[in-house]
Amino acid sequence: MSPKTWLAAVAVVSFATATLAVSAHADDRAVRIGLLNDQGGPFADMMGPGSVVSAKLAIEDFSSKVAGMPIELRVADHKNLPDLGSSIARQWYAEGVDVMVDVPNSAVALAVNEITRQANKVLLTSGANTNRLTDDACSPNTIQWAIDSWALAHSTGAEVVKSGGKTWFFLTADYAFGHDVEAQTSAVVTAAGGKILGSVRHPVNSNDFSSYLLQAQASGAEILGLATSGTDAVNAIKQASEFQLANAGIKLAGLALYLSDVHSLGLEAAKGMYLSEAFYWDLNDDTRAFSARFAERFNGRKPTMYQAAVYSAVTHYLKAVAALGGAKDDGAAVVRKMKELPTNDPIFGPGKIRIDGRKMHPMYLFQVKSPSESKGPWDYYKLVRKIPTDEAWRPLSEEKCPLIKAQ
After folding, report:
1. Dist CA 345 CA 115 (whole Å)
2. Would the pLDDT of 11 be above 60?
3. Domain 3-147+284-361 carries which CATH code?
4. What is the largest CA-CA distance in the chain?
């Protein structure tokens, strides 16, 4: 059994055990956190078991209690299926889970978002990037924690256009996040004077990208924008190298490429690529200290942005519950308190949560180092630009979130 399969199996067993425990003690006052993500599929490296490590570290920092109540964590794998994610969410909320965290795959997150509103619980999604969570689908019960499609498009996309990449073709994941990134980046490219020559969409967890890459090559585009992530992005980049797209004059723009992807690819394959993230383990003393703790628990691996964001989200949620004296049953009230309290943690530093549910913090544009520039394991990025908080996120004036008009 592979490490991923073993960890996924442990997660499922833990979920089953936790469900039994809750059923047996339905009247206790425990704070119940449900971590829902992809434990063994295309997003497992960037979230998966590592997100569980981060959640546990946050809980331990509260000595496993808040306002005198014990903190429980349960974990499940939604396998990137909205129906399964919805089923787990309904079951957990019926059994007393107070807050759902992580929830990658935008289609799953959008489904759980509505269920959370109906149940008046809390959703802290660090794994879903669709901009809809703070736009037309915004909710008084939901906070989007790490990044979104607008921020990705306006950082990575804009930089590539400035560098001379004027004609684009998109390879896009066929779900909400991929669609959002393609649309947002297309708008940025067009506004900057570039031109979109076409796009093609692939299903999640694809293995063969050959036909898509041939279409990109035939388009004559200078830039292949990868509006995809996880193992799909890694496989697409590897196969692009095999097809020698660079020799055909096509450069790759990773619109959702992250630390775990670069680690899988290796610096020789990924060198020179631009990417945007909200966190990197080697940014400052605080990020290095947290990452050292994480690595001790996770086979020496450094945390991805998404995994670190789980720590940040769980920490701020528990601070809000403590500030409310343990009142946690009204999810919308907890989210209001989270918005009222300033955020501050070793992951993102000081920040805040906007009325539309957008967690506000700086963004960073990085370039992947060459093998000769790297000083050791996980030393993959060089900082190109820190993007200030007020530039990093879509302005409220462009959002359709009804919470904005209600304030």
Report:
1. 29
2. no
3. 3.40.50.2300
4. 65
- Helices vs strands, H then E, count in the chain: 16, 16
Identical fold for domains 3-147+284-361 and 150-277+363-392, yes or no, is: yes
CATH H superfamily, domain 150-277+363-392 = Response regulator (3.40.50.2300)
The pLDDT value given to residue 75: 98
DSSP helix/strand/coil, 234: helix
User: pLDDT tens, 75-88?
Assistant: 999 999 999 999 99
Q: Phi and psi dihedrals of 154, rounded to 5?
A: -85, -10
Q: 328-337, 363-372, 380-389: which has the highest mean pLDDT?
A: 328-337
What residue has token string 């490429």? Answer: 257
Beta strands in 308-400 (DSSP E): 343-345, 349-353, 359-360, 363-368, 381-387
Write the CB contacts of 264 (distance below 8 Å, at least 6 apart in sequence): 45, 231, 234
Residue 230 exposure: Cα atoms within 13 Å on the Cβ side: 27
DSSP state of 131: G
- Determine which of 213-222, 249-258, 336-345 has the lowest per-residue pLDDT on average: 249-258
Phi and psi torsions of 74, nearest 5°? -125, 155
Look at residues 202, 212, 211 and name the one whose alpha carbon lies nearest to residue 169: 212
What is the strand order of the sheet 363-368 is part of?
274-277, 363-368, 381-387
Burial class, 193, CB count within 10 angstroms (exposed 0-12 / middle 13-18 / buried 19+): exposed
Q: What predicted TM-score, i.e. pTM, was given to this entire model?
A: 0.87
The mean per-residue pLDDT over the stretch 377-406 comes to 93
Domain map (residue ranges) of the chain: 3-147+284-361, 150-277+363-392
Distance CA 334, CA 123 (A): 11
- At residue 226, the pLDDT reads 94
